[in-house]
Design a protein that fits this description.
The chain is mainly β and 227 residues long. The chain contains 1 helix and 14 strands, in the order E-E-E-E-E-E-E-E-E-E-E-E-H-E-E. The protein has one domain. Strands 1, 2, 3, 4, 5, 6, 8 and 9 form an 8-stranded mixed beta sheet that branches. A 6-stranded mixed beta sheet has the order 11-12-10-7-14-13, with no helix packed on it. Strand 13 and strand 14 form a beta hairpin. The termini are far apart.
């Protein structure tokens, strides 16, 4: 089966401002990947058919990404096991949060090859959920359509009869909390001066209580602790 893909992002069509865009795809053999397109394939979430999931830097690129002494111990930023299905045959794999204030990238025109989701109202966040279905679903019966009032973004077929479903809804914006990084690592040719210059955007990830993986992106202000 040729590669199946869905590209999506959050934007305000009236101002042509957007947040980062994302890609969810399957190259075949039941493997599913999710990435933030601004980073490219340097860092991606891998949802392997085996049930071993991880967020990791690209294996081929990892050795050359960092200056001497700056590389992390390994390329894996997180490892998880596939969670139990929320109902028979349906697994909530990951969620991507795009707060209202993340829609700041100005464009002349929005990319027509991307499925655009309207930005959330002030104080709210768009939540994009990626579901793995063990069998095909009817086109008008996407996950959480009735129970959570989700709207369809797209779907990706898998070559063993399963499907990936991508849906979205608005939720209250999660609380912002400062992040402390006592020993940050920098990519090759980058350093403290670059992150303190301003104009930064952050991509964060982790595991939620239900076993699904979350990603959150948006602008971030970096300051240096005087202590």
């Amino acid at each position: 089966m040729p590669e199946q893909a869905c590209r999506f992002g959050v934007a305000d069509p009236s101002t042509k401002r957007r947040a980062e865009t994302w890609k969810c795809w399957s190259p075949g053999k039941g493997e599913v990947y999710v990435l933030c397109r601004a980073i490219g394939d340097a860092l991606k979430l891998s949802l392997h058919k085996s049930g071993r999931w991880h967020m990791a830097l690209d294996a081929a690129k990892f050795p050359g990404m960092f200056d001497p002494g700056q590389a992390p111990e390994h390329r894996f930023a997180g490892k998880w096991e596939r969670p139990a299905p929320i109902i028979e045959g349906l697994t909530l794999a990951c969620r991507i949060y795009t707060p209202w204030k993340a829609v700041t990238i100005q464009e002349q025109e929005l990319d027509p090859q991307v499925t655009w989701i309207d930005s959330a109202p002030v104080g709210q966040s768009v939540e994009v959920a990626v579901f793995l279905s063990d069998h095909a679903l009817a086109r008008d019966a996407w996950p959480a359509r009735l129970s959570m009032n989700t709207k369809l973004v797209g779907s990706v077929g898998l070559d063993y009869g399963a499907e990936v479903w991508i849906v979205h809804r608005c939720i209250p914006c999660p609380e912002d909390k400062p992040l402390l990084l006592p020993s940050p690592k920098y990519f090759r040719g980058r350093g403290e001066t670059d992150v303190l210059a301003g104009g930064n955007r952050m991509l964060g990830w982790g595991l939620l209580e239900d076993g699904s993986i979350f990603c959150r992106e948006g602008p971030v202000v970096v300051t240096k602790n005087p202590g």
